[in-house]
From TrEMBL:
<keyword id="KW-0411">Iron-sulfur</keyword>
<dbReference type="InterPro" id="IPR001709">
    <property type="entry name" value="Flavoprot_Pyr_Nucl_cyt_Rdtase"/>
</dbReference>
<dbReference type="InterPro" id="IPR050415">
    <property type="entry name" value="MRET"/>
</dbReference>
<protein>
    <submittedName>
        <fullName>Ferredoxin-NADP reductase</fullName>
    </submittedName>
</protein>
<keyword id="KW-0408">Iron</keyword>
<keyword id="KW-0274">FAD</keyword>
<dbReference type="InterPro" id="IPR036010">
    <property type="entry name" value="2Fe-2S_ferredoxin-like_sf"/>
</dbReference>
<dbReference type="InterPro" id="IPR008333">
    <property type="entry name" value="Cbr1-like_FAD-bd_dom"/>
</dbReference>
<dbReference type="InterPro" id="IPR001041">
    <property type="entry name" value="2Fe-2S_ferredoxin-type"/>
</dbReference>
<keyword id="KW-0560">Oxidoreductase</keyword>
<feature type="domain" description="FAD-binding FR-type">
    <location>
        <begin position="43"/>
        <end position="147"/>
    </location>
</feature>
<keyword id="KW-0001">2Fe-2S</keyword>
<dbReference type="Pfam" id="PF00970">
    <property type="entry name" value="FAD_binding_6"/>
</dbReference>
<dbReference type="Pfam" id="PF00175">
    <property type="entry name" value="NAD_binding_1"/>
</dbReference>
<dbReference type="InterPro" id="IPR017927">
    <property type="entry name" value="FAD-bd_FR_type"/>
</dbReference>
<dbReference type="GO" id="GO:0016491">
    <property type="term" value="F:oxidoreductase activity"/>
</dbReference>
<keyword id="KW-0479">Metal-binding</keyword>
Length: 384
């Protein structure tokens, strides 16, 4: 057998190629088996049924979803999300929701949804979706999961509101698998009755020495005796101890990110030890400090989609939302600038792209942007 070109990098490459050859000679279609495995782990679409709707707080529900076929759901890692694809009042759109259930449970995914004022998708789910309803989603996706090789086993998780969902999944996994991992959750809520999963979190913290939970309330009632305020550097270090050397996860409403990064900078916590799960773009158009000072975000511009039509939209509307409002559908998943699935090419005109968009150098060079994080500042023409 000829030597494989990778043999000088990997000690056992000859053994592996010999095993592949042996299986193929025995009638095993190796690539077909791999394709089957990929289809199980990374399906393009999941057809789901709402099994149960659990009321968590006055503004939050958990939707327990099972696979319509009755099969196991694809494996996922705690911290990942699925992107629900919906049609609401004639507009086809999508939203990413972190899975809050444990990756050890593959009969269902739990999605924990909090009402967002004016939130088209969250309000639709909370008000109109009931057990027995069918939903469609992507497979599990995202990079917010814990990687023990790079992140160590001593974690601090700073959560706000429904940003506790991926923390809950991580905590449930630690408990279910008995992982040798310590996780300190510092969880900010406006009021005590806004705390999601409070009973379970407090029970786990009592039973499991690896898990510590602190609730921080920003608008406490008179009977709240715990920590108050926001998750400032001082509050976080007082509760969780020094952050030095510990991987810090941050998940919450978009407005939380800039504040939290400033606080972590203040105690010298390096960015490489911070992992963010952005549930959207941090700042609305016009409030981003890089937004051009002479561009009024309320003014309407024309967006043309090459060869397919045009519409008017305010500059403040993210390009992806504006396209969906008008019947166009770029592919999308994270809606927070990260995954690049909503990439469009700006053929003519100018857009403001928020810093969250992780544009590749080649995207910049060839005029592509991530439409979920881009705002049209002039009349534009896009292509996708
Ligand atoms: S949808 Fe992921 S980058 Fe826009």
């Amino acid at each position: 057998m000829p030597t494989h070109p990778l043999a000088r990098f990997f000690d056992r490459v000859d053994d592996v190629t010999a095993e592949i050859a042996r299986r193929e000679a025995g009638g095993v279609a190796h690539s077909a088996a791999v394709d089957d495995e990929i289809a199980v782990c990374h399906p393009k679409q999941l057809d789901l049924v709402v099994d149960e709707v659990i009321t968590e707080t006055a503004t939050t529900k958990t939707f327990r979803l099972r696979r319509a076929t009755g099969e196991l759901l694809p494996p996922f890692q705690a911290g990942q999300y699925i992107s629900l694809r919906l049609q609401i009042e004639g507009v086809r759109t999508s939203r990413a929701f972190s899975v809050s259930s444990s990756p050890t449970k593959r009969r269902h995914y739990d999605l924990t949804v909090r009402r967002v004022p004016g939130g088209r998708v969250s309000n639709h789910l909370l008000d109109a979706v009931a057990p027995g309803d069918r939903l469609v989603s992507s497979g599990p996706i995202g990079t917010f999961q814990h990687n023990p090789l790079f992140h160590g086993e001593d974690l601090v998780f700073l959560a706000g509101g429904s940003g506790v969902a991926p923390a809950m999944s991580m905590i449930r996994e630690v408990v279910d698998r008995g992982l040798p991992r310590t996780l300190h959750l510092v969880y900010g809520s406006r009021r005590a009755d806004d705390i999601i999963f409070r009973a379970e979190l407090d029970q786990v913290a009592r039973d499991c020495p690896e898990i510590t939970v602190d609730h921080v309330i920003s608008e406490p009632d008179a009977d709240w005796s715990g920590p108050t305020g926001f998750l400032s550097a001082a509050v976080v270090e007082r509760l969780a101890g020094p952050l030095r050397g510990r991987m810090t996860y941050v998940c919450g409403p978009p407005a939380m990110y800039a504040y939290q990064l400033r606080q972590l900078d203040r105690v010298g916590h390096p960015r490489r030890r911070v992992r963010l799960e952005a549930n959207g773009i941090a700042l609305p158009a016009g409030e981003d400090r890089d937004w051009p000072a002479d561009v009024d975000p309320t003014v309407e511009v024309t967006v043309a989609v090459r060869g397919r039509g045009a519409f008017r939209t305010p500059r403040s509307r993210p390009l992806l939302d504006a396209l969906e409002d008008n019947g166009f559908q770029p592919e999308a998943s994270c809606r927070s600038g990260e995954c690049s699935m909503c990439r469009v090419r700006v053929v003519r005109g100018g857009v403001f792209t928020a810093a969250e968009a992780r544009l590749r150098m080649s995207d910049r060079d060839f005029g592509f942007t991530h439409s979920c994080a881009a705002y049209p500042v002039t009349d534009v023409e896009v292509d996708f």
